[in-house]
Design goal:
Order of helices and strands of chain A: HHHHHEEHHHHHHHHH
Order of helices and strands of chain B: EEEHEEHEHHHEHEHEEHHEE
CATH superfamily of chain B: P-loop containing nucleotide triphosphate hydrolases
Largest sheet of chain A: 2 strands, antiparallel
Number of strands of chain A: 2
CATH topology of chain B: Rossmann fold
Mean pLDDT of chain A: 83
CATH superfamily of chain A: ABC transporter involved in vitamin B12 uptake, BtuC
CATH architecture of chain A: Orthogonal Bundle
CATH class of chain B: Alpha Beta
Radius of gyration of chain A: 23 Å
Oligomer: heterodimer
CATH architecture of chain B: 3-Layer(aba) Sandwich
Structural class of chain B: alpha/beta
Strand order of the largest sheet of chain B: 6-7-8-3-9-10
Largest interface: A-B, 32 and 41 residues
Number of strands of chain B: 12
Structural class of chain A: mainly alpha
Number of domains of chain A: 1
Number of helices of chain B: 9
Helix content of chain A: over 70%
Mean pLDDT of chain B: 90
CATH class of chain A: Mainly Alpha
Largest sheet of chain B: 6 strands, mixed
Strand content of chain A: under 5%
Chain lengths: 386, 269
């Protein structure tokens, strides 16, 4: 048995603190690198220097780079083509990848803490598919409802002045869908303050099946255009994103993700059990409800723009825990950074692997995440965790 | 003062506790004993505030538990559960520092670490500080949680009046639910010696114990429960008699005198 001298606790804490900052800094560098590669790579190559110059110009600070620096031979020089591709296509897409990757990863980490089980994931327990069903229903039935409303009441949410409402309806529906299915699964799996994990995952399976059936039904009644839109949903993709779309969901995704990261102390205590967390002075019911709500908001809003992208919420927190341990003070921010980075790289692969076509990113993440999940199950069983 | 006032608890239609009253003062070790199903766990849950009674109240410093904010309450009383659900890879030091959660904003990181270190020393778990909790044995885990709850109520901290609120006492209470259940004999004793030291520092300790001899050796007062009522309470000599034990536990026993300590020593007849 190794023995520490009495004063070894202080350096121990300090050492872990330093390690935490180091890992967070490395992940931040990874994210920046991923971002630069992602916006620069493609049919039109854009160098990081050009990206920088274009961004400066877009922010109205273009005159900072003057004189020889912007000569045609300069590394900073860029053409109209680079500018358009970056600002209209690559940049919104990369930003969306960052938002969605961070949101899904931090949602997964928070759910795993809340359920005290490392196998929880927004996709597995039905949050994502519930949101997907609601979004699909909005796509297929929304136009019919809209024209009904405008005929009946002269109300038209798709006219110009009502546009903000129109843009909000899809994320809102997805959020509500996610919330309802989370709530149902949670209620089924919880009894007397204890959440039974096997029941939770089974309820998630049932919820996924119900949502899949609902989506199938919607596919059956939809027309060609709606079918294409729906297909996009079920596979998940970051393609075709516009600034308007991003702006309509960014506040929800970013706000909910950051808010989740503020629950690190609560989640740490919850890992001891709900009663123990209460004895430690946390308002448990309020905490649980807030976390479920924020996860539904972050995941629902993400699903609203990208469709269902599975397993990010499962894989990312695991990778962080393997290296950094379970402390949510590190886990939550690190998951956000790593989730955003992984999503950037996954999207890069999705749009460059099978040129000129584009792989749906949801297929890609499931190809990697599915086997990873199986490996986790085998490992958890071997260790007798459940 | 931790006061249980005429509480009555019913679970699933069965009355578990009937009109039960009990008072714990700061600085004493009280052991709750009784056969299975006597209501020990229910009483413990009610005293910790985890369970609402249908009638009566549990009061701390004259105020019902429900009227304390969770965080205030957590600074005044800590609860050691029988077992914990923790299955995530925390370091032992991180687990112990969780005990400082209710002091966030009131205590510096250095202060937290000093208190945590003393608690680790007290429970003989300092050498485990950097180990992963999930790799510990059952007994080691139980001692780590003891260190956590000691850290929570500042085992080594000052007692007396609360300077920020002179009307409020700084009485603290430690509730231990079968704290020795997975410990080897040596650590069963060191754990209860820790409880006694806590009491010497002004902390009121309540321990649910199955081992009557441990209760006899370390408790200032023994409360004996049967069928949701207090059958007897008092010192070990008063409560641990052959007739009472036989009546409550339905087990014929002989009560001897401990050769070194002079307290009662119970063996099955």
């Amino acid at each position: 048995m190794s023995s520490l001298t009495a004063n070894d606790v202080m350096p121990l804490a300090l050492q872990r603190q330093q390690r935490r900052f180091l890992v967070l800094a490395l992940l931040a560098v990874l994210l920046l690198t991923g971002f630069a590669v992602s916006v620069g790579w493609g049919a039109v190559g854009i160098s990081p220097a050009q990206v920088f110059a274009i961004l400066l110009k877009a922010l109205g600070l273009g005159n900072l780079l003057t004189g020889d620096v912007v000569g045609d031979e300069s590394v900073w020089a860029f053409g109209r083509r680079e500018e358009t591709v970056l600002l209209a296509i690559r940049l919104p897409r990369a930003l969306l990848a960052v938002l969605v990757g961070a949101a899904l990863a931090v949602s997964g980490a928070a759910l795993q803490g809340l359920f005290r089980n490392p196998l929880a994931d927004p996709g597995l327990i039905g949050v994502s598919t519930g949101a997907g069903l609601a979004a699909a229903a909005t796509i297929v039935l929304g136009n019919g409802l809209a024209s009904f409303l405008s005929l009946r009441f002269g109300f038209d949410w798709q006219t110009a002045d009502a546009l903000p409402l129109g843009a909000m309806i899809l994320p809102l529906a997805a959020f509500l869908g996610g919330l309802v299915s989370t709530f149902l699964v949670y209620r089924v799996a919880s009894r007397a303050g204890q959440t039974d994990v096997a029941t939770l995952l089974l309820a998630g399976v049932a919820m996924n099946a119900i949502s899949a059936a609902g989506i199938g039904l919607l596919v059956f009644v939809s027309d060609d255009q709606q079918l294409r839109d729906l297909n996009f949903w079920m596979l998940g993709s970051l393609g075709g994103v516009t600034w308007a779309k991003i702006l309509s969901v960014a506040p929800f995704i970013a706000g909910a993700s950051v808010a989740l990261a503020l629950f690190s102390r609560h989640l740490n205590a919850l890992l001891l059990g709900e009663r123990e967390a209460q004895h430690l002075g946390f308002r448990i019911e309020w905490t649980k409800r807030s976390i479920v709500l924020l996860v539904a908001l972050a995941t629902g809003a993400s699903v609203a723009v990208t469709g269902v992208i599975g397993f990010v919420g499962l894989v990312v927190p695991h990778l962080v825990r393997l290296t950094m341990g379970a402390d949510h003070k590190t886990l939550l921010p690190a998951s956000m950074l790593l989730g955003a980075s992984l999503m950037l790289f996954a999207d890069l692969a999705a749009r460059t692997l099978v040129l000129p076509a584009e792989l749906p990113i949801g297929i890609l993440t499931s190809c990697v995440g599915g086997p990873f999940f199986l490996w986790l199950l085998v490992r958890a069983r071997a260790r007798g965790i459940w | 003062m931790l006061d249980v006032k005429n509480i009555e608890v019913e679970l699933g239609g069965t009355t578990i506790l009937q009109d039960l009253s009990l008072s714990i003062s700061a600085g004493e070790v009280v052991s709750i004993v009784g056969p299975n199903g006597a209501g020990k766990s229910t009483l413990f849950a009610a005293m910790s505030g985890a369970l609402q009674s249908r009638q009566g109240a549990v009061e701390l410093d004259g105020r019902a538990l429900g009227r304390w904010s969770a965080e205030q309450l957590a600074r005044k009383r800590a609860v050691l559960p029988q077992h914990s659900e923790l299955t995530f890879p925390f370091r032992v030091l991180e687990v112990v520092l969780l005990g400082r959660s209710p002091h966030a904003g009131y205590s510096s990181r250095e202060n937290d670490l000093v208190i945590a270190r003393l608690a680790l020393l007290e429970t003989e778990t300092l050498h485990l500080a950097d180990r992963l909790y999930t790799t510990l044995s059952g007994g080691e885990r139980q001692r780590v949680h003891l260190a956590r709850v000691l850290t929570q109520i500042e085992f080594c901290g000052p007692g007396g009046r609360d300077e920020t609120n002179p009307n409020e006492s700084r009485d603290r209470f430690l509730l231990l639910d079968e704290p020795t259940s997975s410990l080897d004999p040596a650590h069963q004793h060191t754990t209860l010696q820790t409880a006694v030291r806590a009491a010497e520092r002004g902390i009121g300790v309540v321990a649910v114990l199955h081992d009557l001899n441990l209760a006899a050796m370390y408790a200032d007062r023994i409360v004996m429960l049967k069928e949701g009522r207090i059958i007897a309470q008092g010192t070990a000599v008063e409560v641990l008699t052959e007739t009472l034990i036989e009546e409550v536990f339905e087990l014929p026993v002989s009560v001897l005198v401990h050769p070194k300590r002079g307290c009662p020593y119970v063996i099955a007849a």
